[in-house]
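Good morning,

Attaching, inline, the backbone tokens for the sequence recovery test we're adding to the shared suite. The designed sequence is right after.
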């Protein structure tokens, strides 16, 4: 139960239980607010009040009686919150503190890999002097720094602590770490399950930026319930012939290759009989039809596959093994998306500097609440990283529930921040393109990579052990 709020682990437990109940999200993320705002490890009594009430509702009738201890925690939290004073004042204080410092907290590293920082820094300094982004990417790829966590020769086999050092050095050099977008989750699957020829053909070329990927997974009747997919692949001479329709395929029009799920055994149970293919997007029979999005852009597409021939050499793993591989792919996607959003962006309070004139008190307070949530989110991301770099922890304990929790929190944080910024601009937002385009671009973060409901199901079933 998320009651003992004095430990970091309890904050996480509060976040998990709270998000699953869809109530304590604000409270749980604010649990780190006071700690971060004040720089002292004090308990978060404002959050504790709400979390205790949530706990009572989770327990049902027994929680509301003197038969159970929870009311004692609730009363204690209420008294201490009252002594701390109104939450609004704390929020405004955080706004002014964060505007003054304007930065996230760096992850403290006690033991970092010897000599790594000194080896990487000059390479990144040299990369920073290369003006052309394509050339810079190739420079980094050939030195194993486009994906340092990959094994040699593609990366430098960087473990989690080394990855943190390298990320810090990228930031220090003023460089963004290169991303291969869908390749971020296609390549690990190929590295782990592909043939030597597939690894040879795809990995280095993708890291250099010569191959761009898209993901042909979702279908009109198979989005959240991906295992219902109906695209068929039938065995042919030397390969497979694929027929079906995919949808919501991001960057399909620009992609060279696709990771594609298709059913190779229609008689097998739903999760079996699916296979994992690498499809050349220039193959005859591949037709891409762009879909226009609410923000006016053209990110995703419908993709029609008509008698598309895929050679045997482009099947990953064994026929029927596709669901297992797709789960690994989607796991990578989830971590990836969580890590990529919100963690290092502008703090919410920084958006106030875009506003003309003095900022009203209620806006300062709202900015403080959002900043608290962003900092709490960063703290939770750091906890995930810290656990990953703790020596001696068994692998199962390194990957906690944070990936799913962070995905839910980051999507929620982004949506609330974009909506608030729109509001802060008042009538000007009716004509300002920036804030309204930002708000119109929120749905991909809410839907892509799995909706909040699906993540909450994962948290409920796999983290809390609730029945399906
Ligand atoms: C911008 C964007 C880019 C995308 N890019 C790609 C891509 O490149 N490749 C790709 O394959 N897919 C991509 N997707 C698809 C994305 O993965 C799906 O949209 C997502 O999985 C949801 O599927 P759906 O849209 O069919 O909605 P549905 O599955 O129909 O869901 C509709 C609603 O029902 C809820 N729901 C469904 N099932 C459950 C359940 N069991 N319990 C509770 N609630 C449930 C959902 O949460 C949602 O609110 C992209 C989507 C977006 C928005």
């Amino acid at each position: 139960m998320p009651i003992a709020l004095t430990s970091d682990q309890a904050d996480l437990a509060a976040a998990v239980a709270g998000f699953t109940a869809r109530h304590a999200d604000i409270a749980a993320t604010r649990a780190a607010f006071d700690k971060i705002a004040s720089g002292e490890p004090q308990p978060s009594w404002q959050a504790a009040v709400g979390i205790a009430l949530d706990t009572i509702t989770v327990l049902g009738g027994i929680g509301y009686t003197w038969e159970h201890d929870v009311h004692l925690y609730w009363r204690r939290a209420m008294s201490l919150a009252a002594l701390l004073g109104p939450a609004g004042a704390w929020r405004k204080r955080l706004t002014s503190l964060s505007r003054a410092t304007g930065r996230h907290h760096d992850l403290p590293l006690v033991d970092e890999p010897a000599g790594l920082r000194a080896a990487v820094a000059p390479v990144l300094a040299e990369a920073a002097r290369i003006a052309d982004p394509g050339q810079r990417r190739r420079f980094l790829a050939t030195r194993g720094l486009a994906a340092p966590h990959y094994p040699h020769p593609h990366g430098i086999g960087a473990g989690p602590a080394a990855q943190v050092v390298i990320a810090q050095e990228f930031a220090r050099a003023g460089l963004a770490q290169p991303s291969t977008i869908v390749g971020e989750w296609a390549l690990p699957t190929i590295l782990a399950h592909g043939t030597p020829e597939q690894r040879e053909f795809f990995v280095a070329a993708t890291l250099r930026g010569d191959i761009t990927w898209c993901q042909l997974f979702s279908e009109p009747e198979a989005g959240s319930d991906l295992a219902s997919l109906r695209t068929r692949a039938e065995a042919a001479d030397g390969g497979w012939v694929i027929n079906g329709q995919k949808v919501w395929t991001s960057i399909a029009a620009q992609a060279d290759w696709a990771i594609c799920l298709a059913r190779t055994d229609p008689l097998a149970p739903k999760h079996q009989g699916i296979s994992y293919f690498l499809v050349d997007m220039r193959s005859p029979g591949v037709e891409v039809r762009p879909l226009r999005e609410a923000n006016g852009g053209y990110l995703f597409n419908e993709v029609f596959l008509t008698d598309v021939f895929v050679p045997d050499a482009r099947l990953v793993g064994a026929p029927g093994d596709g669901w297992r591989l797709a789960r690994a792919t989607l796991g990578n996607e989830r971590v990836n998306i969580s890590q990529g959003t919100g963690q290092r962006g502008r703090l919410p309070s920084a958006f106030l500097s875009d506003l003309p004139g003095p900022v009203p008190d209620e806006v300062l307070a709202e900015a403080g609440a959002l900043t608290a949530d962003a900092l709490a989110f960063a703290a939770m991301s750091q906890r995930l990283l810290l656990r990953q770099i703790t020596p001696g922890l068994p692998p199962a304990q390194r990957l906690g529930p944070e990936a799913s929790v962070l995905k839910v929190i980051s999507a929620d944080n982004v949506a609330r921040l974009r909506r608030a910024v729109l509001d802060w601009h008042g009538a000007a937002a009716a004509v300002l393109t920036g804030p309204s385009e930002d708000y119109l671009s929120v749905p991909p973060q809410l839907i892509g990579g799995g909706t909040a409901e699906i993540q909450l199901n994962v948290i409920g079933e796999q983290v809390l052990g609730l029945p399906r």
